[in-house]
Write a structure and sequence with these properties.
By secondary structure, this protein is of the alpha/beta class. It has 7 helices and 15 strands. β3 (about 25-30) and β4 form a beta hairpin.
Length: about 220
């Protein structure tokens, strides 16, 4: 199977690698055609077009956009996606301080600054987000930065981890509000309590499983 097009039971996942940091942007949808976008990293017009064409060609109705955390590489496409699909933007309130400074951070870097719209809704630990016949549970997992969340699909045994957990690695903790002990605690108490066969889809890089990371992750 094409690793960028995944089908698990009745859920389909399309993975895009967007912007110069190669963020994994995920589109999740099922036969109802309702969809969600996780971490729209689309940054340049060609990436905007790629995302929009996929939605249109597959007849999808986006229900919401959600950011796993407020770092700029994961939020570059918020404004375009929110306007193009006319849907709410969701994130965790604890990440708002970082999110609200995204424009200032971009101004220090040699690249174009997109707009960063205010979120429409905040999510909390334990919230259940639904679309089509699917649901995602919000797990609050700080440590990489405040406001970091993971999204757990219990039915299909999937976990979208943003920059908290990677294949044989973890998120960096040297950025504002990052903390090494905190991210280890988040992983051990929130993620490693899930079944070993849970498939992990991170914010960068390749998919892995909870069991593999318990056995092989050198940080854990």
């Amino acid at each position: 199977m094409d690793r960028l097009n995944v089908k698990i039971n009745d859920l389909r996942i399309r993975i895009f690698h967007f912007n110069f940091i190669q963020v994994n942007t995920y589109i999740l949808y099922d036969d109802t055609k309702e969809a969600v976008i996780i971490d729209p990293g689309n940054y340049i017009p060609n990436e905007d077009k790629t995302l929009e064409e996929f939605i249109i060609q597959n007849g999808l109705k986006v229900k919401f956009i959600i950011n796993t955390h407020p770092h700029i590489d994961h939020i570059f496409g918020n404004d375009f996606s929110r306007k193009a699909f006319n849907v709410p933007l969701l994130l965790h309130e604890n990440g708002l301080v970082i999110y609200n400074h995204a424009d200032e951070y971009c101004s220090t870097m040699p690249f174009q600054r997109p707009d960063f719209p205010a979120p429409d809704q905040f999510v909390r630990e334990g919230d259940i987000l639904t679309f089509g016949n699917q649901s995602l549970k919000v797990l609050y997992t700080p440590g990489h930065c405040d406001g970091s969340i993971c999204l757990y699909d219990e039915k299909n045994k999937l976990l979208f981890t943003g920059d908290v957990l990677f294949e044989e690695s973890i998120g960096r903790t040297d950025l504002p509000s990052g903390n090494y002990e905190t991210i280890l605690n988040s992983i051990n108490t929130q993620l490693f309590t899930l079944p070993d066969d849970t498939v992990v889809y991170p914010g960068h890089g390749s998919a892995t499983t909870i069991g593999h990371e318990k056995r092989e992750n050198p940080y854990l």
